[in-house]
Write a structure and sequence with these properties.
The structure holds 2 protein chains of 2 kinds.
Chain A (H helix, E strand, L loop, with lengths): L1 H10 L5 H20 L11 H15 L1 H4 L6 E2 L5 E3 L6 H10 L21 H12 L10 H4 L6 H18 L1 H4 L6 E2 L5 E2 L7 H10 L14 H16 L13 H25 L11
Antiparallel strand pairs in A: 1-2, 3-4
Helix pairs in contact in A: 3-6, 5-6, 5-10, 8-11, 10-11
Chain B lengths: L17 H13 L1 H8 L3 E2 L7 H20 L8 E3 L11 E3 H11 L4 H28 L8 H23 L4 H15 L5 H9 L8 H31 L17 E2 H26 L5 H4 L18 H9 L5 E3 L2 E3 L1 H29 L15 H21 L1 H7 L4 H40 L1 E8 L5 E6 L3 H8 L23 H15 L8 H19 L41
Antiparallel strand pairs in B: 1-4, 2-3, 5-6, 7-8
Helix pairs in contact in B: 3-5, 3-10, 4-5, 5-6, 5-10, 6-9, 6-13, 7-8, 12-13, 12-14, 14-16
The chains are: A mainly alpha, B mainly alpha.
């Protein structure tokens, strides 16, 4: 040992010493980062165990501050929940919340708004696997469950009509007749459904995120959920009959346009007509 | 055709044209020319604000035209049918015949959707135009004697128009129609004692029943349109009888009307305006979707949608309902729903009563029993103007309260906070608006006074030999001065002495005391137009000012004006005042 250090010490002024130290430093930090950092897609062939443990790593960094280190939830001093327990919410809930960008939240608030997603698909899968491992819950639905394309062609029209009935009975009260969203008490809201992926609509019905009630498979069968999605998709595909939908907010926006566009233009015309008389010319005093 | 000038042959009457012939034929039998002769030369004054009522009139014509089209296909029946039309998302669904035929008009009748949308847009415009017209009449005091009854007719028209709109909104039997009818049902049921009976009578049993759509249809296409037509006729006959009001100005008095004759000027303007209104409505009907009933779905009492609102003219009632706290009283086992009865029945009753009674209330306060044909500028009746502004504020706030969920979702606001805010704002907002508008109007009166007594600001800045700067004022145009002074002086009602010489109290003293108090508040702060002496003194002063500069002297006694420039009231170009060169013989700019 003495010998080694002495030998090293004797070479510490060598012109190559700086380069060697630099290389060593880079190697150590790089290696340590690769080993210790939240693992990104490392091994696609890894089994469930690996997915869960990778998900746990991600969870501890990005989610535990609100949901607790074991996803048991955190209760504040005055008894309200800081972050709810995730035991038993299932992979579908994680997939919905994380891939629509709702989780992780940017700051605490009455409701998590939709935003750009923070975790990529692989990471979402890992997180979902970890949360699913905590307790039994709904799994991420498969394409044949939610995709309206899987409905046989001859049954599709009937499915759409049926889905419309379900939609009007269960969804319009909050999401509005056109799915353009609506207000709920206390600053909460039902978000717009226009442009939402079928998978996420299905997961939302299944897990009841934020203020939404759960439509379990006993309440609304999987194929009925798919019908609702088929109706929403049919609405998006049909053109706006009768012109611009004015935001699809109903009579309030129509009233606004009646005043601003209709009466505004007509009063403008009244001014124009009155300004043009047989004996009056603009710009010339009598 | 050559005209005979040699006098050898008697001139023959030309063969009448075909149109002339037809007109003579008709006149010989109907005698229209005698009536028309006077009316086609009827004079109307020219101002854009006098054309607002016309928007309503022409919208009504559009409503009649498009409405007749819709009746050809609409089936006012609540019988259940299976929809087999061409709208995919609803095919095979059970629905009422009314809703199915509305879908048929929208998707299977050529031009049907356009007609439906035009009908709906023009209903919105009809009522909006009536409101705008009413505001014009109110702000300018055109409802004063002898036009009070026409104001009342107008108020009834507005009320009937709103009812008619609501009936039409309910006819298609879609989800929004049904929700609206459910609210109407709730309003009826909130009336103590009578409520349930009224509701069962209207719906022919328990809500919704099978009767309401056919009944509303008769009301919508026959009863109310008939009343509207009759009242519009009366409204316009009275307009012709009273003659149109006009703005004050040189040559315009309480006894004449200055303007253009009906033929050809007004016939062309009004006729042209009809086509403009029709065109704008058609554009709106073609480009902007309204009431997409196919999206709402057929009415089902178990369903409701976010964004369930009435058309805008019922927005106030909706707002009142939405912000009312949930007060209820239980009395002998019966519940009195103040939370619905007060905002739904009492408040609209008070508002409409106030609107109809306003001309009489104002006349009582002011004690003004004279006829008025010259309009008042809004600033010259500060309290009236402020009252209307307060009402508009209240209206706007309630309207916004009726759309509180839409406001919350569009502007990311808290629904509850909007409601709490509105509960206070509907009381505070109008008061603030009243005070602001009143002071604003009085300030504008002072501005007029300033213009009359000190002239207008020329923008010419003068420097005196001492180095002080001042702006020159010049007298305003005499025509403008005439216009500004063509108004009556307000008279505060003086309380007659409470007792006569024998110590007997005069009748109605308490009422008169209230009236005197109100009259004092109404008029005491107004700026009265300057007296003759004040105007003469102002003119003398102006002449003196001009003389000082005209002669190049700085201190010439007042009245010693020696210059040869006439004070013609036209703006000066400023060179006269620059003091650097002799201005003798230089003319003030005349035009």
């Amino acid at each position: 040992m003495r010998m080694l250090s002495a030998r090293l010490s004797s070479r510490r002024r060598s012109p190559l010493a700086g380069v060697v130290v630099l290389l060593l430093g880079l190697l150590v930090t790089g290696g340590a980062y690769a080993l210790l950092s939240p693992a990104t897609a490392q091994d696609s062939a890894a089994g469930d165990e690996a997915l869960v443990s990778q998900g746990r790593e991600l969870f501890l960094v990005g989610c535990a501050s609100c949901h607790g280190k074991n996803a048991e939830g955190i209760v504040t001093q005055d008894g309200t929940q800081y972050g709810p327990s995730l035991v038993g919410v299932g992979a579908a809930a994680v997939d919905f919340q994380v891939s629509t960008g709702r989780m992780p939240m940017a700051q605490p608030g009455v409701q998590a708004p939709r935003k750009d997603r923070l975790y990529n698909e692989e990471e979402t899968r890992q997180l979902a696997a970890y949360v699913a491992s905590l307790g039994p819950g709904p799994a991420i639905p498969t394409a044949e469950q939610y995709d309206p394309e899987t409905i046989p062609e001859e049954e599709r029209e009937e499915a759409i009509v049926r889905g419309g009935e379900f939609f009007r009975t269960n969804c319009t009260a909050c999401h509005n007749f056109a799915g353009s969203g609506g207000a709920l008490p206390g600053g909460k809201y039902a978000p717009t459904l226009i442009g939402v992926e079928p998978k996420h609509v299905y997961e939302a019905m299944l897990t009841g995120p934020q203020q939404m009630p759960v439509f379990s498979d006993d309440v609304l069968k999987p194929e009925e959920k798919r019908d609702v999605i088929a109706y929403l998709q049919a609405n998006e595909e049909t053109p706006n009959y009768g012109g611009s939908a004015l935001g699809s907010y109903g009579p309030v926006s129509e009233g606004m346009f009646a005043w601003l566009a209709g009466i505004g233009v007509l009063v403008g015309f009244a001014v124009w007509i009155a300004a043009h008389s047989t004996r009056s010319k603009k710009g010339v005093q009598q | 055709m050559a005209i005979a000038t040699n006098g050898k042959q008697a001139a023959k009457a030309e063969k009448p044209s075909k149109i002339g012939g037809a007109a003579t034929w008709a006149d010989d039998r109907l005698g229209l020319a005698t009536i028309a002769k006077k009316q086609i030369r009827k004079v109307f004054p020219d101002h854009w604000s006098f054309m607002l009522g016309e928007i309503a009139l022409w919208s009504f014509v559009v409503l009649l035209l498009t409405g007749v089209f819709l009746t050809l296909w609409f089936k006012p029946s609540m019988a259940e049918v299976t929809y087999m039309g061409s709208y995919d998302q609803l095919r095979g669904l059970h629905m009422s015949e009314a809703y199915a035929s509305t879908l048929e008009i929208s998707f299977d009748v050529r031009g049907g959707l356009l007609m439906r949308q035009m009908h709906h847009w023009s209903a919105m415009l009809f009522i909006a135009a009536m409101f705008v017209h009413m505001m014009r009449v109110f702000f300018t005091g055109a409802f004063r004697k002898p036009r009070e009854l026409n104001w009342v007719i107008g108020g009834l028209l507005l009320m009937l128009g709103i009812l008619e709109g609501f009936a039409g909104y309910s006819l298609p039997d879609d989800l929004l129609s049904g929700t609206g009818l459910r609210i109407a049902d709730g309003l009826m049921k909130s009336v103590p004692v009578l409520g349930t009976y009224v509701s069962f009578f209207a719906f022919g049993g328990e809500f919704p029943g099978d009767d309401i759509i056919p009944r509303l249809y008769t009301v919508h296409v026959l009863l109310i349109p008939g009343l509207l037509l009759a009242l519009i006729g009366a409204h316009m006959l009275l307009l012709v009888y009273h003659k149109h009001t006009q703005w004050a100005g040189p040559g315009r008095t309480e006894e004449n009307v200055v303007g253009f004759p009906m033929m050809p000027v007004y016939a062309a303007k009004a006729g042209g305006f009809f086509f403009i209104v029709f065109g704008v409505t058609a554009l709106m009907g073609g480009l902007m979707q309204i009431n997409p009933v196919w999206r709402f779905g057929p009415y089902n009492p178990a369903e409701v949608t976010a964004g369930s609102q009435p058309d805008w003219y019922m927005g106030v009632a909706e707002g009142l309902l939405r912000i009312m706290p949930g007060w209820e009283t239980e009395l002998f086992g019966f519940t009195l729903s103040w939370n619905v009865f007060i905002p739904g029945v009492v408040a609209p009753g008070i508002i409409f009563g106030l609107v109809l009674a306003y001309p009489f209330i104002e006349a009582w306060i002011t004690g003004d029993k004279r006829e008025h044909h010259l309009l008042q500028r809004p600033r010259n009746a500060p309290n009236r103007t402020a009252f209307m502004v307060a009402m508009m504020t209240l209206y706007g706030l309630l309207w916004a309260a009726g759309g509180n969920d839409i406001l919350a979702v569009v502007f990311n606001l808290n629904l509850n906070y909007i409601t709490y805010f509105m509960r206070v704002a509907v009381f505070v907002g109008p008061v603030i608006a009243f005070i602001l508008a009143r002071r604003w109007a009085i300030s504008l009166q002072r501005h007029d006074q300033e213009a009359l007594l000190h002239g207008y600001e020329t923008g010419v800045i003068m420097r005196s030999p001492e180095g002080a700067y001042s702006e020159r004022h010049l007298p305003i145009d005499p025509a403008r001065a005439y216009t500004l002074t063509a108004r009556d002086r307000d008279q505060v009602y003086a309380l007659p002495s409470g007792e006569d010489e024998n110590g007997v109290k005069a009748p109605g003293t308490r009422r008169n005391r209230l009236r005197a108090k109100l009259s004092h508040y109404w008029f005491a702060h107004n700026v009265q137009k300057p007296t003759r002496e004040e105007l003469e003194e102002a003119r003398e002063h102006a002449e003196h000012e001009l003389a000082m500069h005209s002669g190049g002297h700085q201190h010439m006694p007042a009245g010693d004006y020696l210059g040869d420039h006439e004070l013609d009231g036209h703006p000066a170009d400023g060179h006269q005042f620059d003091g650097r060169h002799d201005v003798h013989g230089e003319e003030l700019r005349k035009h």
